[in-house]
Amino acid sequence: MTEKAGASDVIRIGTRASELALRQAALVESALVARGLTVELVRIRTTGDKKSQEPLSAIGARGLFTKELESALLRKKVDCCVHSLKDLPTEQPEGLELAAILEREDPRDVLVINRVADASSLADLPAGSRVGTSSLRRRAQLLAARPDLDVVDMRGNVPTRLKKMDEGKFHAAILAAAGLIRLDARQRIDAFLEPPDWLPAAGQGAIAVQIRASDERMRLLVAPLDHAPTRVAVSAERAFLAALEGGCQVPIGALVMPAADGSSGHILHGLISDIGGRQMVRGSRALDPADPELTGQELAADVRARGGSSILAELRAVANVLPPQPE
Q: Is residue 3 part of a domain?
């Protein structure tokens, strides 16, 4: 049944309370206000926020930064939620859908270096440098490129991570370009980690607006925010992630990029790795814009066949990362 509401009702947007999350929610707020709507941001603390000192891989659940927002949406405490798409599990809870995916910001990872470190790139970092990250994907790629670095878990929001850098607790850190750009901190970027050699998380840099599937009014209100090229790209990336049973506990990267031959086509690049970066399987596949999910599934099947399934099996056996799944 379609939900109904009067035009004068306040639109309640669920969001995490971090500065970055609020800036992302404000993008949706501004677009709705520009259409004459009254909007309220509702701040919600998630499990990932409450356990900000624990490694993400140790907390162990999917939806660390989204579950509480989705619960509020299902209970009609809010009318929509704004998420960093890379935080959203690939499977939507029953009754919810992604009604809009905003145009993507720069999807790359970047290196931020402590001012006292004598380096300007990943290759320049002295052996033994402490590099902070909370991501197993980033850890694996760091260790594959520079096994002589000391990769240390780093949690907290972006300002907190930058503060830890400035206090000298780390020589460098890996962050998302999009977060720094949205926080007006582009000047802190010392080097971009260029794909496809270095791959970001599936959906990184994209913002998603989630609604109740029954709420036709909200679907119509946020539909103009949907950016079709971004949706196609991230659909392929997230299908790749889903087909590899991946979440924050599995080192998986994916990104759709323009074809290197200068044509109008795009290529989906993907990788899966063990946690130490010693075993890594990469692959790529031409993107079918008419069926991006199939592109992701086909690339995942290729990666599995060339060693990805063995990596997943080892992760399950050694770290109990994933429940056994039929191949």
A: no
Check whether residue 149 and residue 222 sit in a common domain: no
What does the DSSP assignment read for 179-229?
Answer: HHHHTT-GGG--EEE-TTTS---TTTT-EEEEEETT-HHHHHHHGGG--HH
State whether 161 and 16 are in the same domain: no
Residue 194 makes CB contacts below 8 A (sequence gap 6+) with: 108
Active site residue 109: no
Same domain? 74 vs 36: yes
Number of domains in the chain: 3
242 & 309 share domain: yes
- Of 230, 233, 231, 221, nearest in space to 4 by CA: 221
Q: Residues 286, 158: one domain?
A: no
Say which CATH number the domain at 272 has: 3.30.160.40
- Taking only the tens of pLDDT, the chain with its 327 residues reads 455 544 458 999 999 999 999 999 999 999 999 999 999 999 998 765 555 444 544 445 456 678 999 999 999 999 999 999 998 999 999 999 999 999 999 999 999 999 888 899 999 999 999 999 989 999 999 999 999 999 999 988 899 999 998 898 999 999 999 999 999 999 999 999 999 999 999 999 999 999 999 999 999 999 999 999 999 999 999 999 999 986 657 899 999 999 988 788 999 999 999 999 999 999 999 999 999 999 999 999 999 999 999 999 998 887 554 444 333
CATH, residue 149: 3.40.190.10
**Catalytic position from the list 79, 87, 106, 190:** 87
247 assigned to some structural domain: yes
Say if CB 130 and CB 150 are below 8 A apart: yes
Q: Are strands 266-273 and 280-286 parallel, antiparallel or unpaired?
A: antiparallel
Residue 259, domain extent: 234-316
Whole-prediction pTM: 0.90
